[in-house]
Each structure stands twice: as structure tokens, then as C-alpha cells.
Specification:
Length: about 400
């Protein structure tokens, strides 16, 4: 693989890292014996600039050299015909010098202007109006049953559109609908008296279309903004209505659920918050309990204590025992549920000579399989996974029986 391709992939995976940090990653894992850190940093900056041009599909740098007098930023903007409602000026230089020719003295001018697209301001009142108009009352199917089933789902990525990769299967919002239909059938076949559903974040692919470099390449046409929120709501609403004896809906936000292109401006997953609001409004006149958290939820469900998060926040990346001490219930069996990794990888909490295990006497950490199985970036790094979901039941003694299903 070419160095530029490696850098581009690492930039995509680490959108908030500095060029120096990206260069360190390249140096540590790929090209440490070939290029110095300084050289790699320059190459990273060059690739990032090229990728930015590809992402916006408009020129981001304008240059002029000639005799036309341009002596101010305002004159440069007018000369290049820049629409300042769409672009923000990030750099401006202007030089002038006299030269002598056969025709006499003249003045040459050199101007350089760099831009970046303005991030559109979000009209939350308009979005709220559109979302409210999409909300409808949900029906609850009540049937005879036994036991309490806890259904765990992660990483729906509604709005993503993946096609013609070697190992990763095609994926779009219709794939999500089909998966959820299969899941509802499987849950209903088990005949639960009560069903709690836990959504572990990343409901959508992108609200802005600019979450990562070139993210627009793997998105369905027009599936961003309030359009993808309404589509996600309709898919989730119809799925919930198809599950018998629904009792609880728990929702946490994922890193893709932000309403801005930069996580620094929205690290609470506003889109997931909007979805939870819509779902809650659907069940206002029912006995279905709907709860949401941008970071972590912890609830007792059928005698087992669940801690729920997407896994992208630091709260779930450290000592698992500390997480259970701070968010768990010391008198019950605790289960930490997460998504984000697009795999069934296990968290480890204690060691023997040969192996490391995730189980303890009173807690366990489980990463739930995704519905979205990958894109070009993940496949190029060998991270393609299988879609799936998990069902958890109390075994009658306050301990979980965990059933992992593939789709």
C-alpha cells in the first residue's frame, strides 16, 4: 500500500489528532525505518490538504500573479468571486514588487487566498418542527408469555451506503430494515412476557456528511440532516411496534450521532437525543418506559444490573472494575454493554498463566455485534465483521444467560 493511502486511512480513523500525532502513528506501525518524523509530518499535512479538497469538491486555495493591483483582502475576495456566505477565509497573503522592462517600470502583484467551507448553522427550531410532524403514536402488541428478554442492538448506521467491496456485504437503510425484521421475529418466537430493548448508539451514519474525510463517499444520497433523523425514527418506530410485549426502551448516543462535523462542538450525541425524544413522544400514552443518556445509563432489569454505553467515551475504556464500582450495583450481578468496535471483541479483567478472561463472580463486559459491518476503510484494515445482536435472560439465579446471534 502506498504511503499516501496509509496516511489517508489513519487521518480518517483519527480525525481529531494533530498532524504530529498522525505522523507518530505512521512511524510506529508502518514507516518508522524509512522516514523521519519531520518528513512524515509534512507528508501528513500534504495528504490532509489534498483530502480536504476531495471532500468539499471545490477549490480551497486561490492564487494570482500579474499586474492587476490587488492590495486588500476585500479586493482579493471580489477578484476571485468568493461567496463568503459559503466559505471562510483561513489565510491571505499579498505581495507587490516593481520590475523594469523595455516598456518601463511596472508593479507585479502576487495574491494567495485559502478557504474552508463554512459549517452551516443548524436551525434547531426548524428541525424540531420537522421531527414533530413525523412523530406518530406507536401500537403495543400484548401477547401471553413468560420471562423477560433483554435485546441488545448496536451500530445501525442508518444512512450508510456500502457497495461492491470484496468481503464486506452491501449495506444501506433497507439492510437495516431487513435485519430488524429478522430480529423482531426471533424475539417474538421466544415468547417473552416482557421485552426490554437497549440501543447502544450510532443510530445514523452522519448528520452533516462531514464526520470524517471523504465520509460522503459511503453515504446514501440525501441521507443527512433532518431527513436521516426522520428515516431513522421511522425505522426504529416500526421495529419497536413489531416486538411483542415491549416494556422498556433504553438509548445511548454514539460518536456518529453528533449534529456537527467536529465532535468538539457536539460530544453529547444530539441526534440520538432527538431520536429518543421522538420515540418517547410515540409512547406517551402507553406503559412503555423510554430513557436516554448521552454517555451512560445504568438500570436494574429483571434482577440483573445493566450499565450501558457506546464505548467511545473514556468512561468505558479504563478499569472495568472501576466502572462497575461507580455505576454498578454492588449487591447484584452487573453487565456492562457497549458497541462502537463493530465486533464481538471481549474486555478482559483478570489473568491466569495462559489466558485472560472477561468474567468475574459478579460482573461481565460484553461488546455487542453491530448491524453495520464495515466500509472500505475497515475492510482495507481487515476489520470486516458479521452483523448480529444479543439476547440476555436471567437464568433464575440472578446471573445472565447471553445468546449471541448472527444475521
Amino acid at each position: 500500500m502506498k504511503l499516501e493511502d496509509v496516511i489517508r486511512q489513519i487521518l480518517q480513523a483519527n480525525p481529531e489528532s494533530s498532524f504530529s500525532k498522525v505522523a507518530e502513528i505512521v512511524q510506529d506501525h508502518h514507516m518508522g525505518n524509512i522516514f523521519s518524523h519531520r518528513t512524515l509530518r509534512r507528508k501528513v499535512a500534504k495528504v490532509a490538504k489534498q483530502s480536504a479538497v476531495e471532500d468539499t469538491r471545490v477549490p480551497t486555495t486561490y492564487n494570482y500573479k500579474g499586474e492587476k493591483p490587488i492590495t486588500s483582502l476585500a479586493e482579493a475576495v471580489e477578484f476571485f468571486r468568493i461567496d463568503l456566505t459559503k466559505f471562510e477565509v483561513t489565510g491571505y497573503t499579498c505581495n507587490a514588487w516593481d520590475v523594469t522592462s523595455q516598456k518601463g517600470k511596472k508593479t507585479n502583484y502576487q495574491v494567495k487566498l485559502t478557504l474552508k467551507p463554512r459549517e452551516k448553522e443548524i436551525d434547531y427550531q426548524e428541525i424540531r418542527k420537522n421531527l414533530d410532524s413525523a412523530i406518530s403514536t406507536a401500537n403495543i402488541k400484548r401477547t401471553p408469555g413468560t420471562n423477560h428478554g433483554v435485546l441488545c442492538l448496536a451500530d445501525l448506521h442508518i444512512g450508510a451506503d456500502i457497495q461492491k467491496l470484496a468481503k464486506t456485504q452491501d449495506f444501506n437503510y433497507k439492510t437495516v430494515i431487513e435485519y430488524l425484521r429478522q430480529i423482531a421475529d426471533k424475539v417474538n418466537q421466544r415468547g417473552y412476557e416482557k421485552v426490554s430493548i437497549i440501543f447502544l448508539g450510532d443510530f445514523i451514519e452522519s448528520f452533516t456528511g462531514l464526520n470524517h474525510i471523504n465520509s460522503w463517499k459511503s453515504m446514501g444520497k440525501g441521507l443527512y440532516g433532518h431527513h436521516v433523523v426522520i428515516l431513522a425514527y421511522e425505522i426504529v418506530r416500526d421495529f419497536l411496534a413489531s416486538v411483542n410485549n415491549l416494556t422498556n426502551v433504553y438509548m445511548v448516543a454514539g460518536n456518529h450521532d453528533r449534529s456537527t462535523s467536529d465532535a468538539k462542538h457536539d460530544n453529547e450525541g444530539d441526534v440520538a437525543g432527538l431520536l429518543s425524544y421522538m420515540v418517547k413522544q410515540s409512547y406517551l400514552n402507553s406503559n412503555v418506559n423510554v430513557e436516554f443518556s448521552s454517555i451512560i445509563l445504568n438500570r436494574m432489569i429483571d434482577g440483573i444490573f445493566y450499565v450501558m454505553t457506546h464505548n467511545h467515551h473514556g468512561v468505558s475504556k479504563g478499569d472495568i472494575g472501576k466502572v462497575f464500582f461507580e455505576y454498578g450495583d454492588q449487591k447484584s450481578y452487573n453487565v456492562l454493554l457497549g458497541g462502537h468496535w463493530h465486533s464481538r471483541k471481549s474486555k478482559k479483567v483478570f489473568h491466569t498463566l495462559n489466558e485472560t478472561y472477561l468474567d468475574q463472580a459478579n460482573y461481565r463486559a460484553v461488546d455487542i455485534a453491530p448491524l453495520f459491518t464495515g466500509n472500505f476503510y475497515s475492510e482495507s484494515n481487515g476489520w470486516t465483521s458479521n452483523a448480529g445482536f444479543s439476547l440476555i435472560e436471567n437464568n433464575g439465579n440472578g446471573k445472565p444467560n447471553i445468546f449471541d446471534y448472527s444475521l
